[in-house]
Design brief:
The protein is built from 4 helices and 3 strands. The protein is an alpha/beta fold and 113 residues long.
Length: 113
């Protein structure tokens, strides 16, 4: 919610936004992030989902199976779902994975690490 509000009030659009194991309601079409995509406030949205997220559960995108949420974004050409079946809620940010996560983010933005 904090990120959504910051993007909404920003004078410049966010080119790329990455959410890792997000606590976004599973039916994201009802979430206010969709408004930001449609209004051009977010250029490209990347949602990273963990296959073994024991924190969020099935009510949220971050805890859902990929087949349960992928169809929600079929018509959203600026949204990509990245699924890591072996990851848990915070796996992207454990010390052994942190550098590869930062490279993943910068790869999509054209930067380098």
């Amino acid at each position: 919610e904090i990120i959504r509000r910051a993007i909404r009030i920003s004078k410049r659009p966010a080119t790329r936004v990455h959410f890792f194991a997000p606590a976004i309601p599973r039916r994201a079409r009802t979430h206010k992030l969709v408004e930001l995509l449609m209004d051009g406030k977010i250029g490209f949205l990347h949602i990273h989902v963990a296959g073994h997220d024991g924190i969020l559960g099935q009510r949220f995108l971050g805890g859902s199976a990929i087949f349960e949420i992928q169809d929600q974004f079929e018509s959203e050409h600026h949204t990509t779902i990245h699924y890591q079946p072996e990851f848990g809620h915070g796996t992207w940010f454990v010390p052994d994975r942190f550098d590869s996560t930062m490279r993943l983010i910068t790869r999509f933005s054209g930067g380098s690490l």
